[in-house]
Design brief:
The chain is of the alpha/beta class. 28% of the residues lie in helices and 20% in strands. The strands form six sheets. A five-stranded parallel β-sheet has the order 12-3-2-16-19, with helices on one face. A four-stranded mixed β-sheet has the order 1-15-14-13, with no helix packed on it. Helix 1 (12-23) packs parallel to helix 9 (244-259), helix 1 runs parallel beside helix 11 and helix 7 (188-201) packs across helix 8 (219-230).
Length: 408
Amino acid sequence: MHYDLIVIGMGLSGLMAAKTAVEMGKKTLIIGKGMGSIGLFSNTIDLLGDLPKGVKLKNGLSQWVKSHPEHPYSKVGIERLNEALSSFLSLFPEPYSFRSVNEENALIPTGAGTFRPAYLVPVTMAAGAFLKEGDGLIAGFKGFKDFFAPYVGDQLRCRAITLPISDSFQSTSQGFTATAVARLMEKERLREKMGQEIKHHLHNETRVGFPAVLGIRDPSRVMKHLKEILGVEIFEIPTLPPSIPGLRIFNRFKEWLIENGGTLLLGHSVSGAVLKERRCKSIEVLHPPVSTSYSSDRYILATGRFLEGGLVAEEERVVEPLFDLPVHQPRSREDWFGKSFSSEHPIYQAGISTDSSLRPVDENSNLILENVWVAGTILAHHHSIDEKSKEGIEIATGYTAARNAFQI
């Protein structure tokens, strides 16, 4: 079957690329063996974390881009970045929306009891921004091993309680996954019992913080109900993977793409590509024992980095396994890592170099494939973990790659 655009990779950059193409009326196929890291780590939308307090992020970002000319943000440009953020936000109207605090980074609590900067915060986490000592009661659940409320409360200097959670409101010895707890929280009867129990523990706190598991389908309804019972603000705190807020993002994109005519192949891997004269003619999708061919005029590679399989570390070099694109990387394995654990490790800036249109180029800036664009963290010349720019890079380059593919 032939498409106007095939997007390879179903993380946030691939989803943004597919949404953008579908909105332009293009026949779009998006393929992914999984949802990338969106279901593991994405809780907020981070653009750039290392700006001084009080600096408007978009102003600071403009200056930062000028001093990082090879960074993906520089190839996208501030105008396209703003367009991309608006496109993302359009998928999340009230009641489950994302917001910034005075167009600055907000400091939100984490499951490690620290604070980290984030630009766009889901409404479920907004009340936790800039939490003050003693102002919040941290609530955890017995049997949920990915969030230890006493430790988080101690680090944040807030009181903490641990509650049983099950259908019968009794603890179990088996434990709970984040997904299981999120589904239990959608049950009104359980929330009633839990809310009343928490209410007895409240002193002078104005906020109650929960691990980020307050429902999958309708977290706003869960929060509203708990707020009505408790009479204080409610907020979520990011936990260890999997990320329930990330799953909410993925589900919203998936729902929208299906409703608007996009085609999704989730759980499938692209096993090969047919290349001819600097163009990709088709790709092969393996679904054992069958391999199916799909063709398109344009392709977007959004397969992520090492964790997602977009980059593969061999014994002496890093490779891109699908198109065998050259990977910008340190010259030898000895140079992959810094001298100390806390160093900025050069291997994490490895990736695909592109021209200004996000098409792949070699080390001499020669174009490799005319009808392939690259998006997301597989791109070279960024350190998204240290920069706290991961979601911003994914959203901006996914959107821009699709627009560039159709020269719009």
